[in-house]
Amino acid sequence: MSNIIECRSLCFSYSEGGTKTLVLDNLNFEIKPGEKLAIIGQSGCGKSTLLNLIAGLDKPSEGDVLIKSSNIAMLNEKERTELRSENLGFVYQFHHLLNDFSALYNVSLPLLIKNIDKRKAIKLAEDILKKVGLENRLQHKPSQLSGGERQRVAIARAMISEPACLLADEPTGNLDADNANDILDLIIELNDNQNTALIVVTHDSTIANRMDRKLELSNKKLHEV
Ligand SMILES: Nc1ncnc2c1ncn2[C@@H]1O[C@H](COP(=O)(O)OP(=O)(O)OP(=O)(O)O)[C@@H](O)[C@H]1O
Ligand SMILES: [Mg+2]
Q: Which of 23, 53, 207, 217 to mutate to test the pocket of ligand 1 (most atoms within 8 A of CB)?
């Protein structure tokens, strides 16, 4: 089975005022269709940085990220955006919803960007918001939603394109145990029903334990745990 994502000799440094700080040092791993992977590690160890590299939102300092065998560094901006929107769904650590727009519009946006007919996009967004239990919140703006509801909107937005792989950065970080469980069930259901591969960054051992594999980032390296 071919890999959805492959990281080869991946290194990343942040540069500030002429000083380089190495955050990720020579990471090698892959994820296969339908696989569930947890990435754990202390605050500041580079987990969000790693997800940003996988999604092509940052460029590796060295090494490669391949999405379905395409090396994202070899693509131009337009091709990279396309590859991302065809294959990846991203749930950010801080949901990143558009505050001035309704839940429905936020969720339909990935399809509108792909030039899918507006009515069709809105209908699909409505269906998926129902699926995450927000059928009564379609016109609410993010500021009118609870933290858990916002996170469900963010997951709906990531799911709408039926990505091959969902990248979720602390998807339950700001939620109470009940809401966190609901979100986790939702993500696992996506994996069960659509064989969506999952890469979940989490501090929560309950979540990590429900994944197939756990990788810990420490001292700039990834280790299987
Ligand atoms: N834009 C930036 N410029 C310089 N350093 C940065 C930048 N973004 C992050 N860093 C540093 O890189 C390191 C890794 O940050 P990152 O956000 O990836 O950590 P994390 O593992 O996701 O942490 P958390 O669990 O708190 O979300 C941190 O030391 C952080 O200070
Ligand atoms: Mg982070």
A: 23
Is 188:156 a contact under the CB 8 Å cutoff? no
Measured CA to CA, the distance from residue 46 to residue 55 in angstroms comes to: 14
Which domains are assigned to the chain? 5-224 (3.40.50.300)
Shortest-distance ligand to the CA of residue 50: 1
Question: What beta strand segments (E) does 77-131 contain?
Answer: 88-91
Counting atoms of ligand 1 from 1, which one is nearest the CA of 203? 25
And the tokens for 151? 């996170």
Which ligand gives the minimal distance to the CA of 14? 1
Give, as one character, the DSSP assignment of residue 55: T
The pLDDT tens digits of the residues spanning 189-207 come to: 889 988 999 999 998 888 9
pLDDT, tens digit (0-9, with 9 covering 90-100), for 20-47? 999 999 999 999 999 999 999 999 999 9
State if pTM tops 0.85. yes
pLDDT single digits (tens) 111-163 = 998 899 999 999 999 999 998 889 999 999 999 999 889 989 999 999 898 89
